[in-house]
Amino acid sequence: MTKDNPSPPPQEPWSKPAKEVIQDLDVDPGQGLGSQEVEERRRQVGPNRLRSAESTSAWQILVEQFKSLLVGLLAIAAVASVIFGEVVEGIAIGAVILINAAIGFFTELRAVRSMEALQRMGSVSAKVRRDSQVQEISAEKLVPGDIVVLEGGDVITADLRLTEASKLQADESALTGESVPVSKQIEPLEADAPLAERASMAYKGTAVTRGSGEGVVVATGMDTELGHISSLVEEAEQERTPLEQRLDTLGHRLVWITLAIAVVVTGSGILVGKEILLMIETGIALAVATVPEGLPIVATIALARGMRRMARRNALINRLSAVETLGATNVIFTDKTGTLTENQMTVVEIALASGELEVTGEGLQTEGRFVEDEGKVTAVDHRVLGEALRVGVLCNNAELSQDGSGEVQEAVGEPLEVALLVAGAKAGLQRSALLEESPEVREVAFDPDSKMMATYHRKNGRYRVAAKGATAEILQASDRILTRDGLRALSEEDRDRWVEHNRQMAEEGLRILALATKDVDSEDAKPYEDLTFLGLFGLLDPPREEVAPSIRACKEAGVRVVMVTGDHPVTALKIAQAVKLVEEEDAQVIHGQELAAPDDLADEERHRILEAPVFARVSPEQKLDLIAMYQEHGHVVAMTGDGVNDAPALKKADIGVAMGRRGTQVAREAADMILEDDRFSTIVTAIEQGRVIFGNIRKFVLYLLSCNLSEIAVISLASLANAPLPIQPLQILYLNLVTDVFPALALGVGEGEELIMHRPPRDPQEPILVGEHWLTMGVYSLFITIAVLGVFALALTWLDMDNQQAITVSFLTLAFAQLWHVFNMRDLGTSLLDNEIVRNPWVWGALALCLLLLLAAVYVPGLDTLLKVTDPGLTGWSLVAGASLFPLIAGQILKALGWGRTS
Prior knowledge:
It is elongated, with a radius of gyration of 36 Å. The chain is built from 32 helices and 28 strands. The relative contact order is 0.09. It is an alpha+beta fold.
């Protein structure tokens, strides 16, 4: 491999003999590469590091705050105000823009650091053989063909084809989702073996948990599996949330509404002979009235409030608008390990010659029972059970740290061995006490070839051998079996029955360990012959208790839950059945090998995939394809994940949900939401809160726009009637920023309806306001318009008030009518005095504050001059009080008649 004539990296190296891969890479494994050859190869392939991602700067985030149609409309109105001499109005509108931008900037300030986290995984050293010497170098300096030496605890820094493996195991959970360490070998595998089953490979970003070995580097940097995932994260399109899409659509509508109204009113006024400057001022007033200045602010604060509410429920939101998207979610792609399960292997079944026992107690709980057909048994009374538990505790390298009460504080070691110690603790067997009684003098470490492990313990001048391993191998090494009646010979028929029993337990999704023992005179005796077979331990990563009710809640809410895992299909199905994700014994599980490229799928196969409840052995690319397929069919997809392999899918999904406790940094930073407690039930709670938030947003949008539409109608009708403007532009701005915002904000932080999770999800394409809402908004705004224009006409004609006093009366009538209008936002079917609006304390606080602000507008010197208002007097206040209640009374009459939807 030279710069001018490079050798391509080996294709599917796991499927080729190690010697062939070494030959392809032109390296002597005993000597390694020479210094000159290393430099040539590095010039060809570059450093062994992942491509850096461009961070989103604070400046870019700030600029994004101004890329809004609503902000654009406000900016135009501000510029026009200044040009035509209304400097105060222009400054006030500009202040609105800056306030909104500041809130959005400080709330959404974050950088995309997924690639940086991936890159940090490669910032370690590696032991490599070069020029016949083993040396430690920076992992960045590795090149294809390097011979890497591996030991327990090492982080693997490049993709390796293993050439030597002595009891070698690796933790690949972050890359594949496999929940237990994977034993490695050097023999070639099938070319189509999925990533999780390529035992002859070691991958960048994983770690050696046991044993030692060597491997030849077959890929570095972005050519590794980790680099491939890095590319997927870069390429995965960040989906715009439904709320962002809907607000954008609403903004487009407001643009056209504003232009149409302004053109009609201004043009007609000029045609009937009104002054051009006056009509331009009227147009500005219309622009100010049309744009709900409070909408961006209230939406941002309501979403931020939703974020805080979810944070109290252990759901941290990374992206503000993702709060609402949860409410539209109708499909959840969930991982198995740690999300649906406890992520702690547990002995749940023990099969002995005397029969089967169920073991209660999950995870690290040391309180549990051993239950046989006739009831509870103990290790003291049950000879075979006691012996099997002792072997499991002795033939073990894990450790439990327990407090005075026996509770486990910390567990160190492989999950399977930890589970054996916990099972022993349930019977009162502590490893430390057993070792004092029978000290360990020798260990025969687990060997992937023999698939067994053994330890030797000195006792009474002899040695007790404790062995565990795969069922077939332990049976083959045994010639006797222990029963309650004592020892008897192990026949071939017995072996066949135990192999069948092993198969049945495996079909239940259990991981199986066989245990055996014998007494010998010398510690040099062979470990795996003449053993006494004791039985089988069935282990399971048990489902979380709260998952089944949460999945039931999802079904009631019309949300599909789909398991997408890298684990074995049998295990995946078992857990799916345990948590009631599927009810059928033969429910469909689609293996990753069955998932072709989306473009190659026939319609029938695509339909089968969309209906499947469980996917197993799924690769990162396949997760992306599944999400894209569901999104193309109109679904809003939430995706859970914790590993590096999940990062692309977390970014692609409408809502990426990462695990906070066991999740990798890469997954957490690619996600929109982080579960601090790693509980599936927290996702359901977040979905409920998302629905509440959207319902609240719909209410305050309806409220704000009906208020603004009434302002438009008041100005337009007065202008067309050649009458004075009943309300001035700055007064409108004051209402929209002050008296409208606080009631709308109170609506935005409401607790929502009690039965919200008993409804199906909204249509993902449904806008914030549907046709019925626009009609409701029009009717409500008509009531307010009638009240304002009516009281304005009375003030000018019947009471003969001057223009300023009459404008003050109409301004106050409009303000108070809008305040009382908040009670028209209650849902249909709720009572007048007992509904979510009346029960909302924020509504009452907002009304009290707005009352003070309106009194200040009239009676605070300077502010009254700025707003061009005056004391209306007792008569004026009487008019305001009577007229402002008309829209509320009319609205409540419509509610009583079953009309006026707000949800």
